[in-house]
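Researcher: Going back to the complex we discussed earlier. I've cleaned up the inputs and rechecked each line, so this should be the final set. Can you rerun the prediction on the complete assembly and write out the structure?
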Amino acid sequence: MSVEQQDERTIRCLVAKVGLDGHDRGAHVIARALRDAGFEVIYSGLHRSPDEVVQAAVQEDVDVVGISILSGAHKTLVPRILDGLREYDAFDDRLVLVGGIVPDDDQPELRDLGVDEIFGPGASMEEMIRYIREQAPER
Amino acid sequence: MSDLVDDLLAGKHSALARVITKIENRSPGYREVVSALHEHTGHAEVIGVTGSPGAGKSTLVDKVAARLREDGDTVGVIAIDPSSPYSGGAVLGDRIRMASNAGDMDVFFRSMSARGSLGGLSTATTDAVTALDAFGKDYVIVETVGAGQNEVDIVRTADTVAVLVPPGSGDDVQMLKAGILEIGDVFVVNKADLDGADRTVQQLREMLQGRSTAGHHGASGAEMAEVAGTADDGGDAGEETDAWEPPIVETVANRGEGVEDFLAALDDHGDYLDRTGGREQQARDRFAAEIRTLLREDANSLLAAELDRQGGIESAVDDVLARETDPYTVVDEVLAPLRDSLDDPSDPRE
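Model: Rerun complete. Updated structure for the full complex:
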């Protein structure tokens, strides 16, 4: 082993907007806050398909897949992303977070499917950053 | 660890992604991985794309990747974003422009940040290109802002370097004078539908003529070199007589205009490299530079450790400040074990 190798690593997060949802102010705020927390943030841009989110999550080898949905289509879109991650063997060592508007009744179902945490309106950035720092999987 | 190499060679996308992560983090074992991959490389065409922020690099790369995919080629893209590492974090946005290849896993797009690492970025990029090459990508495109020595070093790892210039800004042509002009094999005036594009092409042409006057013998030179190239694969002799004249291509990347011309220019340069033996020479230069860089980095960290063992930099500085010793003597003392083991006859202490 060489002496130059180092143990510390930078946490990488994908902030993704999926589906027909043009509201990206929240995603921008989150991207900036995560950056300021010292994370590397890959921002997907608007109107991404689940396939694109999977492609980005796999190729960028992110620790955290953050999905922002305000359109109400989470029950369709999120399972497709989770399936895609599993297909590419990129599910187990990744946190999957959903942000936006998810009714309480839908939350257990998403968690059962493999979503690690859901951050709704009113969730603080500190809370989210702390969660990521604590829960980001060891690799 | 060797599983990771096997998985990558077997074409597993997540393994390729993880290898690049290890390379970026320089995490334990990354050197062994890159070493193991080396023998599987040498097949990819490596293209560097550089230019000022907003020149349209990502958009052009997106269109080029899509076009290459139509021909059945696979593509790897490394987009380096040196935008100031703020608190160590960064927002990497180049991916937004990759709309033409949405969901196509055979375009492997990876964002890398500068991370303020000490000159390690070009090493990391070289290693990431190795990973994509070993994975079997036909083309690897390295995209970075062309500002500063670091970025120049990065694009130098490419077989062909394309420099993008947006029209209408004197500043961008000024930038070319600061070291970018020399490294460009193909120049692209992107956003060629904007006012001032013609003038930018004109300015570029004048500057490039200034660059290629030395050692250029006109049109017949190419044929002469072709003969010389087949007789002698050394490359050096061929390059003297058959100087490459960088073409200027006009594109409107967001509409896909000029992408064919750009690809043709890249092909021309590839043919030129094959014809003149330049490709082999470039590879030799590249590996020589890589060996030197690794030697320097590794020797540096060994020496830093030795300095620590001998009391650390601060205590050495204290002594120098108190005029008890001087910088040369400190260096001689730190290097003494190395000199002894190498048995250097030029030891100044003797």
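Model: Worth noting: Confidence is low (pLDDT under 50) at residues 1-7 of chain A.
Researcher: Good, that matches what I expected from the previous run.
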